[in-house]
Q: What sequence folds into this?
């Protein structure tokens, strides 16, 4: 309908329709709202809280408030003045009374190994508030560490209320006494290696899934539906079987007296049992088993959409089968390969249960450390910072995945 | 169409044979581990090795008489059913709303609703652990039910949403034009048509909760341990044949869920074919 054909009486109708449509939209939104509110409380809120904990740094500020206030004016070039020492002594006396020394000691110890001892020994030996003007001397006598600039720089850096300390630590970085970002000490710098390991295992598992999944998806997409539906059970049954059951099955199969080793021994291939589990091999095998269906299903649906006419056309135009496959068939499966690989990779990045059960100490992925720092050592700042890095990687990859799948839907719609 | 008709050259036949051989090996890789542990649960010995010294049901007896295992099975059922019910209500309402809602923010909202599936379990678990501990929801059934509902609802939104997409809205208009009230039309026209979709959504939701272990690891107290959680400690400590009995029970539940889902899918296709 063109604008010219609209008469004046039709305009109110149009407005009425628009109003009705708006009411419908409000009603639709009202139906979605309960879930949005629910997810805010059970999902988005908790994750936002975790991200906040990665930068939250108020422990030291709560325990040593006067010290932090005085140190705000300290330029960090030389030792702080007598006022800072007096404030620290007074803070320590108060914190000892409140029993909160350990809270600050724990946080400061993350930044400077041995700080726990410095603070607790000072709290123990500081019998009374030092005479005015003697705080510097008294504290220095109790623990010579108070005569070092680095000790004070650590307190100032941990003064909060927010910090980049945990996020830097998650990337094996730290701030030195001058506030410059430098590489973390060797004994603490383990996370880049863990991230690299997580990345490598995920990449390896993705590659294995693609190599194993491609022929299966091709077979399922080529066979007549009666047979492919039957074979699909082989893919869907493991998909629906509990992760714990599958992990347990691999342990039973691969352990030193397990079925695989026994069979190999019986066949005379090996004399000594092979070490197949609690190492990288076991992790890769079990994870590939768990994630393979996530590769096969998207590959299958992308191959199913390829018309056999293309291959026939290529053949009739004289293309050898291999050329036709490489030039005609394979390019059309690329979106499926991309979607399946990204999906498997994203899921693999966050894996925790399988490596925890079938991996050795050197095969633990980033999720293991996040769990460890949350429940075992209660270093929640570092757990959250590592979680933030993992979440960032996952979200970025998921965005790429979303674009890819969306693109497929668009082209799929155009073909129809 | 026969697939062999297009295989004219020997090299094509070799390639096809290779595909079949590799696929068969992959199928064995996928299925064999699950099948291999099943007979072990019927062993009369206490070692997880073949050949079996004899057959017995002692490990099932052990499972059924163990208060620890039975309690965990009960917990899995309670948490699974409750979070399925809750996610069905929230997910179905949201799917109905999303089907009608037109906005440029819709992809964003949809991405948010589906994000619990993509975010690694450990991150969700750690976030919930920090968030629920101060308000007393860790070590409680309610906390686990809420957390599992958040994980399960995306599957309900997807399955019910897919059903609604194929739903002909003219049918509800026809019902309205014949004088049916919206509630009557929903009950007699819309509901029967989307019921298979709802059932699939419920199965997915239940399976998600029934299989979940990371959140349970972080949040459950000794009272709320579920079957997968109990298996996790069992595998960590030492694998007794009782675990294989538990595995068989879990797998049986999966097979029943899968078979029901497949039945629903076939029924749906038949209905579509008939229409």
A:
């Amino acid at each position: 309908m063109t604008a010219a054909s609209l008469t004046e009486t039709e305009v109110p109708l149009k407005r009425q329709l628009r109003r009705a449509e708006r009411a419908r939209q409000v009603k639709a939104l009202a139906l979605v709202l309960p879930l949005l509110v629910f997810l805010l409380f059970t999902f988005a809120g908790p994750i936002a809280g975790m991200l906040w904990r990665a930068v939250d740094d108020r422990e030291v500020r709560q325990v040593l408030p006067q010290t932090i206030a005085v140190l705000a004016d300290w330029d960090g070039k030389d030792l702080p003045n007598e006022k800072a020492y007096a404030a620290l002594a007074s803070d320590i006396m108060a914190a000892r009374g409140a029993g909160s020394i350990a809270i600050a000691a724990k946080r400061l110890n993350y930044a400077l190994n041995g700080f726990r001892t410095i603070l607790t020994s000072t709290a123990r030996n500081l019998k009374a508030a030092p005479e005015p003007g003697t705080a510097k001397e008294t504290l220095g006598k109790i623990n010579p560490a108070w005569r070092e600039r680095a000790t004070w720089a650590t307190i100032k850096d941990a003064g909060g209320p927010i910090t980049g300390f945990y996020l830097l630590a998650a990337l094996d970085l730290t701030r030195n006494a001058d506030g410059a970002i430098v590489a973390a000490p060797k004994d603490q710098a383990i996370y880049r290696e863990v991230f690299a390991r997580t990345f490598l295992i995920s990449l390896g598992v993705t590659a294995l899934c693609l190599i194993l999944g491609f022929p299966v998806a091709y077979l399922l997409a080529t066979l007549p539906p009666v047979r492919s539906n039957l074979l699909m059970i082989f893919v869907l049954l493991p998909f629906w079987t509990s992760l714990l059951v599958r992990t347990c099955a691999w342990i039973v199969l691969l352990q030193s007296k397990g079925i695989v080793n026994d069979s190999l021994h019986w066949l005379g291939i090996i004399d000594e049992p092979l070490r197949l589990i609690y190492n990288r091999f076991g992790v890769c095998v079990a994870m590939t088993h768990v994630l393979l269906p996530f590769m096969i299903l998207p590959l299958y649906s992308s191959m199913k959409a390829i018309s056999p006419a293309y291959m026939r056309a290529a053949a009739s135009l004289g293309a050898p089968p291999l050329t036709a496959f490489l030039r005609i068939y394979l390019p059309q499966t690329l979106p499926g390969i991309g979607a399946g690989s990204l999906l498997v990779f994203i899921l693999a990045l966050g894996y925790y249960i399988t490596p925890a059960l079938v991996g050795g100490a050197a095969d633990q992925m980033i999720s293991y450390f996040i769990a460890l720092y949350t429940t075992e050592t209660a270093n929640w700042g570092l757990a959250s910072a590592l979680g933030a890095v993992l979440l960032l990687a996952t979200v970025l990859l998921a965005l790429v995945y979303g674009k890819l799948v969306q693109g497929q839907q668009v082209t799929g719609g155009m073909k129809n | 169409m026969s697939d062999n008709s297009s295989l004219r050259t020997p090299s094509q036949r070799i390639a096809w044979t290779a595909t079949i051989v590799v696929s068969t090996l992959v199928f064995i890789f996928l299925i064999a581990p699950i099948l291999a542990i099943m007979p072990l649960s019927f062993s009369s010995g206490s070692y997880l090795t073949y050949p079996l010294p004899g057959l017995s049901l002692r490990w099932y007896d052990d499972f059924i008489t163990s208060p620890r295992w039975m309690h965990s099975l009960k917990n899995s059922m309670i948490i699974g059913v409750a979070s399925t019910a809750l996610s069905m209500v929230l997910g179905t309402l949201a799917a109905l709303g999303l089907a009608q809602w037109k906005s440029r923010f819709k992809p964003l909202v949809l991405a948010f609703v589906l994000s619990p599936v993509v975010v690694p379990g450990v991150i969700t678990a750690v976030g919930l652990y920090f968030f629920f501990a101060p308000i007393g929801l860790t070590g409680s059934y309610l906390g686990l039910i809420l957390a599992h509902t958040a994980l399960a609802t995306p599957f309900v939104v997807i399955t019910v949403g897919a059903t609604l997409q194929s739903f002909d809205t003219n049918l509800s208009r026809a019902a309205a034009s014949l004088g049916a009230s919206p509630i009557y039309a929903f009950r007699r026209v819309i509901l029967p048509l989307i019921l298979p979709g709802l059932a699939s959504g419920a199965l997915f939701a239940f399976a998600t909760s029934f299989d979940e272990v990371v959140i349970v690891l972080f949040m459950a107290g000794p009272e709320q341990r579920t079957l997968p959680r109990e298996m996790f400690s069992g595998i960590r400590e030492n694998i007794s044949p009782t675990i294989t009995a538990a595995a068989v029970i879990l797998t049986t539940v999966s097979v029943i869920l899968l078979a029901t889902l497949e039945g629903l899918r076939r029924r749906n296709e038949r209905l579509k074919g008939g229409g």
User: Anything to note?
Assistant: Residues 3-53 of chain A form one domain. DSSP finds 19 helices and two strands in chain A. Confidence is low (pLDDT under 50) at residues 410-416 of chain A. The longest helix of chain A spans residues 10-53.
